[in-house]
Design a protein that fits this description.
With about 600 residues, the chain is α+β, with helices and mostly antiparallel strands. It contains 14 helices and 31 strands. The chain folds into 5 domains: about 180 residues, P-loop containing nucleotide triphosphate hydrolases (Rossmann fold, 3-Layer(aba) Sandwich), CATH 3.40.50.300; about 80 residues, Beta Barrel (Elongation Factor Tu (Ef-tu), domain 3), CATH 2.40.30; about 70 residues, Elongation Factor G (Translational Gtpase), domain 3 (Alpha-Beta Plaits, 2-Layer Sandwich); about 110 residues, Alpha-Beta Plaits (2-Layer Sandwich); about 120 residues, Elongation factor 4, C-terminal domain (Alpha-Beta Plaits).
Length: about 600
């Protein structure tokens, strides 16, 4: 088909604004899905995606469409993730398109990631067509949604099309709008090959499968290709496209979107955003905007039973094949034994990985509290990127510690502004900007330490705003602050799994809260358990779990009281002897493993 009859577009929206449902209706309207083969959120193949109503992996589907003018078109739809954790993947998917549908919920209006994704599209210079979804609902405020799009994003929305992704209202008109508004791809099959990879995953039978958009030239099975970022050469084994099931083709030309398998065995070689060209081609330059995916949140993953370590190792290795943003390395904890220190793109990504390990690989996990990466500058000038608080150098060697700062954009109704400002101030936030875009809608911009938002900030934000606030953030920089390492000790022995880095002004309240919760969690033993929170050698909080006493006098009935007293004295002397030998000092005893699993989630507060 002529390149003039191809349209490449994506759908961007805030979470739960109907993006995946709209993709279902477009597939049904073009005939690639039938009533018998369809299912809700068809492109969200993972059980977890359908359950949570979110898109985690990008998908591309080819839609054949006959327009009202009688011409045949190919519509390549790229369904992008919607959460802030996957912002880079969204930007690469948008760079593979000439246009995007900006979907706005008529009942909620423009929210944080609506704005963030729209700005991504503006920066890339692609055509944006606003679409108002859920117009069939009684609570829909169509005019207000259009006004917000114009005022907050700055694009014409007076004639924005109203649709209902649930009922199919407006879908035929939307297909015509896609053909009319979005430009055809540029490029020629005679030019050198230049294509971009916008997603990839590992297949057990084919190796790495890469979704790519060809901008110029032609790629055929058997071609030798060069991946610029990986700086490696591979032979193309198979080409095809999804419609929505896979269809094999002999070649992909300029303007087309499809998938490619080559003899790539490591997903790290097919990086998202990488440029593909033929081996030996010197005239092609790499696409701008490529970057390596860097984890921002770290946590320890340990098997609930130490004997299951080899099963967890196999599960983590397999999952890493399908998730290029997931990082792991072996780690040993005194309290929890052998496990892995894992890096994630964000807190949602961490939850997704944890649930996939538990569901797909049947793992029973102990997960430590999430932490962020800190930059430690030593007095000799060395810089260390610290992923695990237990690896912090001695205090005498440290010049200063820097923590990651994010710029957070909070969209909320004006009536909840006071509560949200209080929340941000309590999380050590610095206000950057406050804008009223309408009489009732506010954008609040704060610089916040990432450590303060990575645990429960989003939940608290939803609570204080009654669910109306939405959040988007991006990494800004590292900043120096008064940060200290807080250790938790049980009977004088440090528990490395509960170590954390926190601000010195909050260390006392965090330590007191953590020790108190551990005291309630740890069951009583036959010996005294002392729980302490300490900064260096200075103890700032202490709790005590009183010991149980074995009833050694139970066998005595009647007789002289001296018999009972003798047994109690013998018990007392025995306890002293055991304590002197250190037999009751156990930082990773039978109580620790069960208690840590519950106690660790409080460590980052």
């Amino acid at each position: 088909m002529s390149i003039e009859n191809i349209r490449n577009f994506s759908i961007i929206a805030h979470i739960d604004h109907g993006k995946s449902t709209l993709a279902d209706r477009l597939m049904e309207a073009t005939g690639v899905l039938t009533e018998r083969t369809t299912s809700a959120q068809y492109l969200d193949r993972m059980e977890l995606e359908q359950e949570r109503g979110i898109t985690i992996k990008a998908q591309a589907v080819r839609l054949p469409y006959r327009a009202k003018n009688g011409r045949e078109y190919i519509l390549n739809l790229i369904d992008t993730p919607g959460h802030v954790d996957f912002g880079y993947e969204v930007s690469r998917s948008l760079s593979a398109c000439e246009g995007t549908l900006l979907v706005v919920d008529a009942t909620k209006g423009v929210e944080a990631q609506t704005l963030a994704n729209a700005y991504l599209a503006v920066d890339l210079g692609i055509e944006i067509v606003p679409v108002i979804n859920k117009v069939d609902l009684a609570t829909a405020q169509i005019k207000e949604a259009k006004d917000e799009i114009e005022e907050m994003i700055g694009i014409e929305a007076a004639n924005a099309l109203g649709v209902s992704a649930k009922t199919g209202i407006g879908i035929p008109d939307l297909l015509e709008l896609i053909v009319e508004k979005f430009p055809a791809p540029q490029g020629s099959a005679e030019e050198p090959l230049k294509a971009i990879i916008f997603d990839s995953w590992y297949d057990s039978y084919q190796g790495v499968v890469a979704l790519l958009r060809v901008f110029s030239g032609t790629v055929k099975a058997g071609d030798m290709i060069h991946l610029m970022a990986a700086n490696k050469n591979f032979e193309v084994m198979k080409l095809g496209y999804f419609s929505p099931e896979s269809v094999d083709v002999k070649s992909l030309g300029a303007g087309e979107v499809g998938f490619m398998t080559a003899n790539v065995k490591d997903i790290g070689d097919a990086k998202v955003g990488d440029t593909v060209t033929h081996v030996g081609e010197k005239s092609v330059t790499a696409f701008p905007g490529f970057r390596e995916l860097k984890p921002m949140v770290f946590a320890g993953l340990y098997p609930a039973e130490a004997s299951d370590y080899h099963l967890l190792k196999a599960a983590v290795e397999k999952l890493n094949l399908n998730d290029s943003g997931f990082r792991y390395e072996p780690e040993t904890s005194v309290a929890l034994g052998f496990g892995f220190r894992c890096g994630f793109l964000g807190l949602l990504h961490m939850e997704v990985v944890q649930e996939r390990l538990e569901r797909e690989f049947d793992q029973d996990l102990v997960v430590t509290a999430p932490t962020v990466v800190y930059r430690v500058v030593k007095k000799n000038g060395d810089v260390i990127m610290l992923h695990n608080p237990s690896e912090l150098p001695p205090e005498l060697e440290i010049d200063h510690i820097e923590e990651p700062i994010v710029r957070a954009n909070v969209h909320l109704p004006a009536e909840h502004l006071g509560n949200v400002i209080t929340l941000c101030q309590n999380r050590r936030g610095v206000q950057v900007r406050l804008e009223y875009h309408t009489a009732n809608r506010v954008i609040l911009v704060y610089d916040l330490p990432m450590a303060e938002i990575v645990f429960d900030f989003y939940d608290k934000l939803k609570t204080v705003s009654r669910g109306f606030a939405s959040l988007d953030y991006e990494f800004l920089e590292f900043r120096t602050d008064k940060l200290v390492k807080l250790d938790v000790l049980v009977n004088g022995e440090p528990l490395d799994a509960l170590s954390l880095i926190c601000h010195s002004d909050k260390a006392y309240s965090i330590g007191r809260d953590l020790t108190e919760r551990l005291r309630k969690t740890i069951p009583r033993q036959l010996y005294e358990v002392i729980i302490q929170a300490a900064i260096g050698s200075r103890v700032i909080a202490r709790e005590r779990v009183a010991p149980l006493r074995k009833n050694v006098t139970a066998k005595c009935y009647g007789g002289d009281v001296s018999r009972k007293r003798k047994l109690l004295e013998k018990q007392k002397a025995g306890k002293k002897a055991h304590e002197a030998d250190g037999q009751y000092r156990n930082s990773a005893g039978s109580f620790s493993r069960g208690a840590l699993n519950q106690g660790m989630t409080w460590a980052s507060r």
